[in-house]
Structure formats: structure tokens, C-alpha cells
Design a protein that fits this description.
single chain, three-stranded antiparallel beta sheet, 14 strands, about 35% helix, globular, binds 4'-deoxy-4'-aminopyridoxal-5'-phosphate
């Protein structure tokens, strides 16, 4: 048996994959697969509409918010957010707490003025408290990344923004893992390939009044207004990915909804962080306790800097037991266990058991 701890593309629920398999050659009685179906057909139309409605229900998305399905991934949205919003005042505030928000800020700087809300961090292991931020009341929007996938830093609060300034969040790697109040945001986006489906689809939730403020040069496929007017069918959407994502939404609904996902995420991440904290420094997680990610748990073995040989040995042992894709991101090294919604508590327990055994065998 293989247990997939990948950071993304990542594990999908087994029940969903089995359903995809069973329906692959004959999707909903059509006699063809979803991949061969016109995106203009009523059969496909129902698939997309149901997915969007289920997402609206899962997150209690208010009626003055649109849900758009686009392509281009998280990186596409780094540009899209700026192209669609930065023209409001010409500048935007970015809270840079890790690799992904840093990349988003660089992309946005091509289209307008980007202000850094906090001084550059020496290490991405913390989220400076909001009282230290410098927010511009004239910014087009305030941007942050709710969960930094590479460094394992997850916000423990929703930022407060100046009156009238919309809040934009990249939730690519913790989307649908905890409930949140959509009405606090102007835009939320998430690439699908971590918590909600195959790579290729990006979900955007945007407040209606923010649609139509794009720069004139915005490419059509990144244009929120055009996408909205065309019900996310401006051009051929990633139909297979949207179909699978819809099945994942159904799976979440039958597994306790977002509250159920939150409960599981808390239990799974606690298992791993407890072992790290009780290992007297043998395992080391550099991230401040209050912002440790429930989705991506990064840690070193042997010392804070990591002992290369021990980490290699650990990865090999994990692999021998079927636990794969545990290597840390190439920019930070070490180990990273990603515990997205589809990873079960029992699977996480297996990793916990391996960590405990490895600690006992190798301490001192
Ligand atoms: N934001 C976050 C938080 C991510 O983790 C990633 C991808 N790992 C991205 C953005 C970029 O997404 P994509 O590869 O879909 O462009």
C-alpha cells in the first residue's frame, strides 16, 4: 500500500477515484467519457453547475459573490488578481510571509505599485502580528497567502483591512480545510491540485462589485468580468478536472462538510507536531507554534539545520513502508509531510509511528 504525503499535486480521496474509474467510459449515462463531451452540452453543463452550487453550499458563499472556474493555476491568479484589481487606485498592499506571497508580489509589480506591508522577513517562519503592519488606506487591495505551502506557515487570523479596501487571499493549499467567513474577503482563489482535485482548475470567489475594474490590457482568459459573463465557459474549461473536483465536493459533503475537514486536519497535524515537540530537538520544526500549518508540516531531523544522512535514511525507511513524496521543497530541504483532506488519520498515524520508531533508534 502506498501513502501519498505529496505537497501537490496530492492525494485525492480513494472513493472519488473509484467513482471516476467506474464512470470513465460512460459518464452519467452519456455513453462517452467526460473528456469527450462538449463543454456546451447540457450533460457537461449540469456537472459544472452542480460543482459550483455544492461549493457555494459548503462555504456558505453569500449571493453577492461569484464563483469562477479558471485555468492558469495559482500563478495565473498572481497576475489575474493584479490585472483585475490593481487599477482601482494603482497600488496594492502585499503581506509577504513565504515563497508564494513573495512570487505573487513580484508578478503584481508588473502591473502597478506594490507596497510591502511588513519589513522583509529573514526567514519565513512567522506571521508578524497585525498591529505591526503598515496598511495603506488607499491600496486597491490587501493580499496575503493563507497557507504558505513551502514553509508550512498558516495564518491563525483573518487580517483586518482599512474600510473599503478588499482583502485578497491565496488559499491554494488550505482551501476547504477549515470554515471561514467569505464576506470578509474581496477575492479568494485556490489552485485545485492540493485539496480539491486534479491540476488544471483554479477556483475564484469574487465579490460582485469588484468585477469590471480590470486594466484594459487584461487577457480575456484572466478577465473576471468576461469569465463571469460567460459562466466560466468563455473558452473550453478543463472539463475532466472540474468533473473530479465536483466529486470531491460531494465527498466533503458526505464526510462532515468543512467542519469535518477541520476536525480531521487538527487531529492529523497534532499527531505529527506532538512527536516533533516531544523529541527533545531530534525532530525540529522552525515555524512559530501559533502559525504552524495543519496542511504542510516541515521538519528537520537530527538538528535544526538537519542531518543529511539521517534525513536520507528516514526518507528511505518511509519509502520502504510505502510512504512517499515526503521530501521537503528543494528551496528549504528536510522533510515535509502534507496532510491534505484526502490523507486519512490512519495514514497519518503510520507516519507518526515511523517517526517515533526512528527517534527511538537514532536519538544520541
Ligand atoms: N499558491 C500556493 C499557496 C501554492 O502552494 C502554489 C503551488 N504549489 C501556488 C500558489 C502556485 O500554483 P500553480 O502551480 O498552480 O501555479
Amino acid at each position: 500500500m502506498v501513502i501519498n504525503f505529496a505537497a501537490g499535486p496530492a492525494k485525492l480521496p480513494e472513493e472519488v477515484l473509484k467513482e471516476v474509474q467506474a464512470n470513465l467510459l460512460n459518464c452519467n449515462g452519456s455513453g462517452i467519457s467526460v473528456m469527450e463531451m462538449s463543454h456546451r452540452s447540457s450533460n457537461y453543463g449540469k456537472i459544472q453547475e452542480t460543482a459550483i452550487n455544492d461549493l457555494r453550499e459548503l462555504l456558505n458563499v453569500p449571493s453577492n459573490y461569484k464563483i469562477l472556474l479558471m485555468q492558469g493555476g495559482g500563478t495565473g491568479q498572481f497576475a489575474a488578481v493584479a490585472l483585475n484589481l490593481i487599477g482601482i487606485t494603482g497600488s496594492a498592499d502585499y503581506v509577504i510571509t513565504g515563497s508564494w506571497s513573495s512570487k505573487a508580489a513580484k508578478e503584481a509589480a508588473q502591473y502597478g505599485k506594490v507596497n510591502a506591508v511588513i519589513p522583509k522577513l529573514a526567514k519565513y517562519t512567522t506571521v508578524p502580528r497585525q498591529s505591526t503592519w503598515q496598511l495603506d488606506p488607499k491600496a486597491s487591495y490587501v493580499y496575503y497567502c493563507d497557507n504558505e505551502t513551502v514553509e508550512g506557515v498558516e495564518f491563525d487570523f483573518i487580517p483586518e483591512v482599512p474600510e473599503g479596501v478588499p482583502l485578497v487571499a491565496d488559499m491554494s493549499s488550505n482551501f476547504l480545510s477549515r470554515p471561514f467567513d467569505v464576506s470578509k474577503f474581496g477575492v479568494i482563489f485556490a489552485g485545485a491540485q492540493k485539496n480539491i482535485g486534479p491540476a488544471g482548475t483554479t477556483v475564484i470567489i469574487v465579490r460582485e462589485d469588484l468585477i469590471g475594474k480590470h486594466l484594459k490590457t487584461t487577457p480575456s482568459i484572466l478577465n473576471f468580468e468576461l469569465m463571469d459573463k460567460n459562466s466560466s465557459l468563455l473558452n473550453t474549461p478543463p472539463t475532466f478536472g472540474i468533473y473530479v473536483m465536483g466529486l470531491v465536493f460531494k465527498w466533503i459533503k458526505t464526510n462532515g462538510g468543512i467542519a469535518g475537514m477541520e476536525k480531521q486536519s487538527a487531529a492529523k497535524s497534532k499527531l505529527i507536531y506532538d512527536i516533533i515537540d516531544q523529541s527533545e530537538g531530534f525532530f525540529y520544526c522552525p515555524v512559530d507554534t501559533n502559525v504552524r500549518s495543519r496542511m504542510n508540516v516541515p521538519f528537520r531531523i537530527g538538528s535544526a539545520a538537519g542531518d543529511d544522512a539521517l534525513e536520507k535514511e528516514f526518507l528511505a525507511k518511509a519509502e520502504a513502508e510505502g510512504m512517499i513524496q515526503l521530501k521537503g521543497h528543494r528551496s528549504v530541504g528536510g522533510i515535509r509531510a502534507s496532510l491534505y483532506n484526502a490523507v486519512t488519520l490512519a495514514e497519518t498515524q503510520k507516519l507518526a509511528n515511523l517517526m517515533l520508531a526512528f527517534y527511538k533508534n537514532n536519538k544520541n
